[in-house]
Amino acid sequence: MAIRYQQDIVAWSKEQAHLLRTGQLSSLDIEHIAEEIEDVGKSEQRELASRMAVLLAHLLKWAYQPARQGTSWQRTIKEQRKAILRRIKNTPSLNTCLTDPEWLDDVWGDAVSLAIQETGLDVFPEQCPWVMTNLLSEDWLPSGTDGGL
User: Fold this and answer.
1) Contact predicate 107/54, CB 8 Å
2) Looking at the domain assignment, is residue 120 inside a domain?
3) How many domains does the chain have?
4) Is residue 105 part of a domain?
5) N or C: which end of the chain has fewer CB within 10 A?
6) Average pLDDT of 87-108?
7) E strands of the chain, at which residues?
């Protein structure tokens, strides 16, 4: 008996994989399979956006709270950069996100919200003042008390 997508997605996915492997293509739930494939791509984009927002929030904290700079922030910045670059290497089509102004605006908004929540400051610029090459550069950090601008 066919398992419905809405009833149990895990059992459904196992059944769909079995149908594919055994060549029972006419029994496949094509519409939901297509949705799930699209969701994989969206998941990759969400992961990239999340890591970029954390990176940007920590760079904001670094720039706007120089007295609190420490190895913990440096470690987080380094880890996020590595994870972002690894994700781009494994999924090169994600590179388009890094040049998409709408995506960058959304990520910047998330980063600012996170930085406000973690610092209590509400002084951050409306748009990202830094270029992507610096953001992903291993050694770059914003400097000075002017927010690194």
Assistant:
1) no
2) yes
3) 1
4) yes
5) N
6) 96
7) none
**How many residues in the chain?**
149
State the average pLDDT for the chain: 93
Question: CA 52, 145, 85: angle at the middle one, nearest 5?
Answer: 20
Q: Distance between CA 131 and CA 90 in Å, rounded?
A: 22
Q: In this predicted structure, what is the pLDDT of residue 1?
A: 54
pLDDT band at 3 (very low <50, low <70, confident <90, very high): confident
Q: How many alpha carbons fall within 13 Å on the CB side of residue 121?
A: 15
Please tell me the pTM assigned to this model: 0.83
Q: What sign results for the dihedral spanned by CA atoms 50, 54, 59, 60?
A: positive
Tell me which amino acid residue 83 is.
Answer: A
The Cα 68–Cα 96 span in angstroms is 34
